[in-house]
């Protein structure tokens, strides 16, 4: 049995109401990801410095 387009639309609408799905702001999400990547890089540099210092002390 094939489901009609209108039935699919109704199912999606009901799911959205049930799950209270939110729209995703792609631009905001992208900015947040970029900020996370920058912080990761800063942490990586600091960790590398600490490791280099430990290696020198050994």
Could you walk me through the main structural features you see in this protein, from its secondary elements to its overall organization?
This protein is mainly alpha-helical and 58 residues long. The chain is built from two helices and no strands. It has helices at residues 5-19, 26-57. The mean pLDDT is 82.
Could you write a compact summary of the structure shown?
By secondary structure, the protein is mainly alpha-helical. It has two helices and no strands.
Shape call: rod-shaped
Mean pLDDT comes to 82
Order of helices and strands: HH
Tally of strands = 0
Structural class label: mainly alpha
Please tag this protein with its features.
mainly alpha; 2 helices; 58 residues; single chain; 0% strand; 81% helix
Fold topology:
Blueprint: H1 5-19, H2 26-57
